[in-house]
Amino acid sequence: MAMLTQGEPRAERVLLTGASGTLGRVLAAGLAAAGYRLILSDLVPFPDPLPEGATFAAADLTDADALAAICPEDVGSIIHFGGINTEKSLDLIYSANIYGTTHVFELAKARRARVIYASSNHTIGFYPRTQQPVSIDDPYRPDGYYGLSKAYAELLGRMFFDKHGIESIHLRIGSCLPEPTETRHLATWLSYPDLIRLVLAALQAGDPRFAVVWGISRNARRWWSGDDAARVGYEPQDDAETYAHSIREESGSAVARHFQGGSMCSRGYTRPDDPDR
Fold this sequence. Notes:
Layout: E1 13-17, H1 22-33, E2 38-41, E3 55-56, H2 64-69, E4 75-80, H3 90-111, E5 114-120, H4 145-164, E6 168-173, E7 175-176, H5 185-188, E8 189-190, H6 192-204, E9 210-215, H7 229-232, H8 254-258, H9 263-266
Helix pairs in contact: 1-6, 3-4
């Protein structure tokens, strides 16, 4: 794997999984505009006109052979945004997010490619909002099977670097929306332009090794810090505070409003005692 100077574009082709999803479509347009040659992949067709220089190939993440078949030898980075993106049954999460992500890392090992992974704030969702800032060195506190699968992927990336030298950058995405819409987003928002800046930084980082970066904008009320953003070169530009005057109060149960993971924490919640114990 060639060493790069910080900010130097990578010449290799890039595979983007989950390309037909909301964030995949944002990235496809933004990365193509930055000059990257993209192979877009998903289970469902890409709904937009293909960006210049991009191709599309359908593949199921749970089928390792099908995934390898769409990934040329000269792919230098795999941006993995595919899989289940919310809380579902254990069977669905395990198939798509555990097996599927493992297949992506095995493919990266075969291609000697960098992995840029869509992790999540739900790896630490059960931290109370009063406990901040939370850093990437704090223990995992996933708020469901979805968050647990994202923690698994971060540990997988750590192991693949230690054992095989495969670089990976794990983006703990907060609330990636066109605009923040509720008070929780004042801490967790990631703007679409900052999402593109974040992935471009991950693509262009000179020597990321294994890295974890909070996927949020430059929010004045952020709950999270102490990550690898500086080493990767991510410099967010937007701030949810710009919208503070117009967003609504957060709805949902007291449990959802108590924990950093919000409504994901209250799904199926049955604990009868003080959640801070």
